[in-house]
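Database export, one record per block. Field names are fixed; values are copied verbatim from the stored entry.
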Amino acid sequence: MSDDATPTQDLFSLDDMGANQPQALEQAELERLTDELITAFKSVYDPEIPVDIYELGLIYRVDVSDERHVVVDMTLTAPGCPVAGEMPGWVEQAVTGVKGVASAEVNLVFEPPWDSSRMSDEAKLQLNMF
């Protein structure tokens, strides 16, 4: 994402689910998962826009539990998006493909509403929006 965008560490967090479990998720593992989850998000594209969902700013929040359950809050560029019923499944499939992820849940949210200010500079460049 751009320097002006929300830093990666603000999107990704270690929730307190299972915080009392003996095998807590270590920071190094969370950092590896974060990098690989970003790569997974970048493999999912809105079919109408030639930019991945991560660079578009569609990923709002990612929580990773000690049990490696990943919860993703994401949005769409518009509530009436033709792939609204399919895209969460694509994201879930990409996330569960990351080594070490036990399960995934993808929540589609519309607050706050998406707008082009959430896009990275890379996405804006690809779409000639400068």
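Remark 1: The chain has five helices and four strands.
Remark 2: The radius of gyration is 15 Å.
End of record.
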